[in-house]
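One-letter codes give the sequence; the integers encode the fold. A sample entry reads:
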Amino acid sequence: MLISSCFLNAHTASITNPFTHSRVGSNNHKRGIHGWSRNFLPRVAACRGGRHHLSQLAGSLTVYIHADDGTTSITNTCLHIAALCGHQNFCSEVLAQESRLHRPGPSSLLSTTNDDGETPLLVAVKSGRVSLALHLLDQHYSRHNLLVEHLLKQDTGKCNVLHHAIRNGYVDLALELIHRQPALSESCNARDESPMFIAVLKGFRSIYMELLRNERSEYGGARGYNALHAAVKYGNQDFVEQLVEQHPEKAKELARQADTQHDTPVQLAAHFNRDTILTLMLRGDRSLGYRVHTEHSTPLLYIAANRGHVAFARALLEHCPDAPYKNDRSRTCLHEAVEQDRTEFVRFILDDNSKLRKLVNMVDDVGDTALHLAVQKSNPRMVRALLRHPDIDLTVINNRVNTAIWNMYNDGDEVKTINWNKIYLLIRNADRRAKNDIYNFREEIRNKVNYATRKDAKSLIQTYTTNTSLVAILLATITFAAAFTLPGGYSSDAGSEGLPIMARKVAFQAFLIFDTSAMCASLAVAFICVIVRWMDFEFLLHYRSVTTKFMWFAYMATTLAFATGLYTVLEDRLPWLAIAICVLSVLLPILTMMVGGWPILKLRIQYGNSDFLDMV
């Protein structure tokens, strides 16, 4: 945009220089063209991209370049501002005039840094002015070797121009920078991030392939990471392959470096299940498979078990069949897989051809096997998988002198769960020889449950009465209302006014019987809930037994009353529908009992009867 004479004259009276905070237009400050400050006018032109006044600036440009106040308050030159705004033509004109006014040598404007340590090229890259940055590289930096050295300048965050080009995704610019100055790849910023690390993080293959050509390239990253950490985390198999192939010794060095969490790239591979990357690293250095975590001595197999990564464990054992498998507490990867409910990993370990079969009866520092732990966690799937192994030993005792079944000895609430009963039946059926041990265990648990139930009798009775009374009152209301809305209605004929029309039908008479029975049973249960004795455990047992029977009777009577009532109305016109309704109503209580009690019934069918199943 051109800066016109009108614009200049309109502001010469009293204008504050926004860059130097000086007043222009007064007699003391009327310098240069039309009373404007010679230091201010180039910056205005740079901001607006105007070339109109550059021919008039030639006389003052030398003063501007060398004057102490020739910059803004944060020491930006006009070239910084033009680079920030993306004015390529303005930059070219300024640099051309500077070259004419200067003796031969590198441009001082291109090498000048502001308070943030930024050269104009850095400003252009950080501001997204890629074409301008490429223009400066091609037309100006290539003309003098000293300017190429200026490419290495870093901002206050110790980032050079290559850091910013890669971070912002300017691939072509980054490649040009590497070509102009390969040493850009040899520095890290204030967060210890190298250009290589950023390129691998962002997956720029062309960039990291070019950086790999320089043997002095840095590989560091933030928080102790290196480029190999980044490749493993994001699954960049290609980088790992290129690194191992081109710089095998460097790959070994990077694979041993730990981050601030003490994780090496190999351990990250275990966390993220990078089995292919692990294979590449082990081909270069097989000893990596035997490394353990420096802080808590956790081996790779243990980490894989924690995450359930079977593919990683399989790849590791192919190259290192004797890889370590337990931590500093003697807890094996099988213990950890059971702890974290990694069923597939447990099956992998227990496989007939597995190299880890010996772990099945191995104990930790408290003497617990994996079976002890599976029983303690009430995990029937794990218990079943372990019991199917031919080498399992149920007689192993821990430091508390307990076999696995005694790890089920916990509070009474667990006994009332289906999983607990599944485990009890599985162990009972797996070791028929331990009858005395199982008998003692059963008696201990029975006494413990009875004690806990007696202690909590009041809250149990309150729960039972609340739920039971609600259902009983609901059934009593339904059956009472049905008695006065008889099927078929009432007669209005002379001599039989008010009598039920269907009174002579057997189905109608059955309806009355079932409806009355359901209402009486429901009212009886509701009344029992009123006279309940809260603190008496024996009454609790009696109360449950009686109310359960009465409620089932009321439920069946209600469904039969519904069936006979509809049968009375439909039998003459739709007999097939009437019969179908009756059959469904008769089967409903049976289906309800089977569906509600199916988990327990299934256990009885699979494993036989158990005294504890009645407590569920």
Observations:
- The chain has 32 helices and two strands.
- The CA atoms of residues 258 and 264 lie 4 Å apart.
- The first strand starts at residue 15 and ends at 16.
- Residues 456-615 form one domain.
